Amino acid sequence: MNWPTAAGSDSRPDPDSEYWDERQETRPPGERRDEIIEKIGEQVRYAYDNSEFYREFYSDVDVDPRNITSFEEFEQLPILSSDDIKQEQKEHPPFGRFLCIDEEDIARIYGTSGTTGRPKVFGIGQDDWDRIGEWHAQILWSVGLRPDDRVIITSPFIQYLGSWGALAGVDHLGCTTFPFGAGMEGQTEQAVEWIADLQPDALYGTPSYALYLGETAEERGHDPAEDFDFKVMFFSGEPGASVPSTRRQIETMFDCEVVDQGSMAEMTPWMSNSGCRHLENGMHVWNDIVYTELLDPDTEESLEYGAEGVPTYTHLERTSQPMIRYWSGDITTWERHDETDCECGRTYPTLPKGIYGRADDMLVIRGKNIFPSQIEDQLHALDDYGDEFRIVVEREGALDSLQLVVEVADDAETGPDEFHDLVRQEIKSEVGVTPDVTVVKQGELDRTQFKADRVKDKRELAIDV
User: What is the mean pLDDT of the chain?
Assistant: First the structure.
């Protein structure tokens, strides 16, 4: 086979076409799997031949990394973790021995924030970046974007790959792009006025930021549903776009469609998990762009459709710093394409609830497994909810307590006591634990211009003496 595919094609479908590449997107899944295993074989061979790390990492496996011909053989390769990357890059800075290309051939450098330890560094060659732009354009086509659309990007243009990946996709698609950014003081107020003047068709950012943008617009006298003209917003970075009540709130606030996207920065093209303009909730898994396995969080064994597990990703056409069997740490469930209620005709598996948590974000309280997205969904479904909340978990004696600080809307029809009791009842019904609830006025809790940080687990700070 021709591996990797040539990068940088400028051809685009007819604007009325549903598909960027109908054969690829609608082919029988068995036929697609045959091509995927060929790509896996080529990718693993390439990484083994060009990366000292992978030669060492695969030194004890019972299969030949230069001749992977079946999924059974592939699944015998070890799992790659975030800690593996950090340790490798610590010992062999800055890129580790993953690079596979000469450093002078790196076109772009990105990285993680390093808020949970040593930041990870990504070196991307130009041919890979061109393919990333083309793949993102193809996926954005399924979202409903077309070359005559105007797109505003409202996430920070820092080392965060989300903004740059979105920009690469909309640029390759031929859209008019406004890389506005986010994070500076007063920038959201400016965004409101720019949007009112320019009337973009689409927005990229995080769900939390979209809600903050809508609140800011209303404070400045705008009705986002009437005064703006968005047809779609596409999001990554946090679970909100597949949290049903949050999704509905954004759709109602802006009178537009909402699409959830995103895998991981390490796995760029990260749009390989993406909703489309027909999908009510969740994301299609474009597994012929980035191959995705769902693995048991404890045994790391492959899971069938319908199970809940950890997405584990493999690049299929990456010549610079390829990731193979990379453990995401996220939690989701998946289903076959013919189990998904979607009219698009694509034959990819689907994550019907999106990525709804991380294994390390799950709160175990009194024997119950609780994801923050469950609480978010219940709160957004309440008419008098004031748009922000915080979760605090503490240990009181031998028992853990779940504490919620929840805003009540300024125009609430229920009183604070009644709202308090309603929140307590709805959350207990959803997660099986009765929370201690504190009700505060709308606007009292800080808003975010990027990803929301709503959870504080004080149990991690407790030290037994």
Answer: 92
